[in-house]
Write a structure and sequence with these properties.
The structure is a single chain. Strand 4 and strand 5 (about 30-35) form a beta hairpin. The termini are far apart. It is built from 13 helices and 13 strands. The protein is an alpha+beta fold and about 500 residues long.
């Protein structure tokens, strides 16, 4: 029988839970020892005084503890049975964990051994990994020796989720909860991070190793001086791990427990036995959304996480490889494009230079030009060397000797035109033969002049440019010799007329 106020309480929930005694008393709640009449097992019932609450925030924390605990399923956490309201109080029913709290054990035995603390760190690592992996993340915020129970088999259970935080509030306003000495510095600012639980676990482990409260240990600045507190009594790996976990700056503090012995890694997960204890068949009205997290799945969570990390690494490596391949292919395509552009530019310049320097051209075009030049030569010869001189010579008999001079000038014009046409035809023929169209002036100077022919006879073969010029000068000289003095011709005619 337990006396809560005016009248004693012997049973709860219509006689289902028979009160046996009190396990603990706090400022806002008591933890009762009771027996479940439905199956005869021992249970722990946490009773929260709603009427004595200082603020509605305390009531909210009690409701949150029941809600969060109903979603958890882990061998190192209490088993939730139900929660209800009765007689103006909130009740949370859990499976009673048989064992002794670390606070009581430390008062009775003093400091614990390194083996016990190592096992505690291993069990705490499994619990924190499980809580911090939940969605939303669950942060205990009040891990201390009084909230850890050591079972008879040497394992540790973490209880009292009255300060738990199961969601992030972007607008701020978080309540400062925890126990002085075991709280991380950021909790005094109302912030709770995964590293806050890591700090509390390390402070608890250090208190178990030294038998003293964390605030009584040597400090260096804001940080606890772990080497000075342990005085070389433990192995270096444990000192290094606890020093890192007790880092005051949350950004430098690890998010997971790093003070783990190599032999102890995975021991808690390997020793989990899903048949070790049965879950109660009866659940409360709150749905157990964490039912899928049975003990074997919790032990496999670490393997899944490593596989996920390996897949992410493989994806990053593949993305980096593909990026490098694409960049290399792009650079190769750019080099090929530049090479093709340079080739096109060189070919265009070569064609341009080939046309202007007399390189090989189209045979059809050259043949047409040669035919046109030949026709022009024939027309020049017929017009200026034959037809016009003959016509002017005949008219001179009637119109005077001045037309004779015009006829001779027509022959000179025809000779000059024929010279130019002949030079062009020679150039075209050289192009046909694949020559460059240029001749050395010395070759022209050394060439023998052709035999003089009559001006009225057409030439059967091409005449060199210098030969044609010489013949034109000779004909011009002959023309000048044949020109009569005009005054002499007039006097002679007058004499003949007389």
């Amino acid at each position: 029988m337990v006396d809560f106020g005016a009248e004693p309480v012997r049973a709860l929930r219509g006689g289902r839970y028979a009160i046996v005694g009190v396990l603990g008393v706090g400022s806002q709640a008591e933890t009762l020892h009771a027996v479940d009449a439905s199956d005869g097992r021992a249970v722990a019932i946490k009773r929260f005084h709603v009427r004595g609450a200082k603020s509605w925030k305390d009531v909210e924390l009690a409701e949150r503890e029941a809600r969060v605990l109903s979603t958890l399923s882990h061998p190192n956490l209490p088993v939730y049975i139900e929660h209800f309201e009765e007689a103006g109080a909130l009740y949370l029913v859990m499976e009673k964990i048989e064992g002794e709290t670390l606070a009581s054990l430390r008062r009775r035995r003093g400091a614990l051994s390194v083996a016990d603390v190592t096992r505690f760190l291993a069990d705490a690592d499994g619990v924190l990994r499980y809580l911090h992996a939940r969605s939303p993340m669950i942060i205990h915020r009040d891990i201390k020796p009084g909230n850890v129970i050591r079972r008879a088999d040497g394992s540790y259970a973490f209880v009292d989720f009255g300060s738990v935080r199961d969601q992030l509030k972007p607008e701020g306003g978080s309540t400062v909860v925890g126990t002085f000495g075991y709280m991380a510095p950021e909790q005094f600012q109302g912030r709770a991070l995964p590293g806050s639980d890591v700090y509390a676990v390390a402070a608890t482990a250090l208190a178990l190793l030294t038998g003293r409260e964390p605030e009584d240990l040597p400090h260096r600045g804001l940080a606890i001086d772990v080497p000075a507190a342990l005085s070389g009594a433990v192995e270096p790996w444990l000192v290094r791990g606890l020093t890192a976990m007790l880092e005051p700056d949350p950004d430098k503090r690890p998010r997971e427990i790093s003070a783990r012995a190599p032999a102890q890694r995975g021991r808690a997960r390997a020793e989990w036995d899903p048949e070790r204890e049965e879950r109660p068949a009866e659940r409360s009205r709150v749905p157990d959304v964490g039912r899928e997290w049975q003990r074997p799945l919790v032990s496999e969570w670490f393997e899944l996480r490593e596989q996920s990390r390996a897949k992410r690494r493989a994806v990053r490596e593949e993305a980096h490889r593909l990026k490098g391949a694409m960049e290399q292919q792009f650079r190769q395509e750019m080099r090929n494009a530049k090479r093709r552009a340079r080739g096109l530019t060189r070919s265009r310049r070569a064609r341009h230079a080939q046309w202007h320097t007399g390189g090989p051209a189209s045979p059809v075009l050259l043949f047409a030009v040669a035919v046109a030049l030949t026709a022009a030569r024939v027309a020049n010869w017929a017009l200026f060397r034959v037809f016009l001189p003959t016509l002017l010579g005949m008219l001179s008999w009637f119109l005077g000797p001045g037309l004779q001079r015009a006829a001779r000038r027509c022959r000179a014009v025809g000779a000059a035109g024929g010279q130019g046409l002949e030079r062009a035809l020679d150039a075209v023929l050289e192009r046909v033969r694949g020559r460059n169209g240029k001749r050395d002036d010395a070759n022209y100077g050394n060439a023998e002049p052709p035999k003089p022919t009559s001006a009225d006879e057409p030439r059967s073969e091409p005449i060199h440019v210098r030969s044609s010029s010489l013949r034109a000068r000779v004909e011009s000289a002959s023309y000048e010799e044949e020109v009569e003095d005009p005054s002499h011709s007039v006097d002679e005619r007058r004499r003949q007329e007389r």
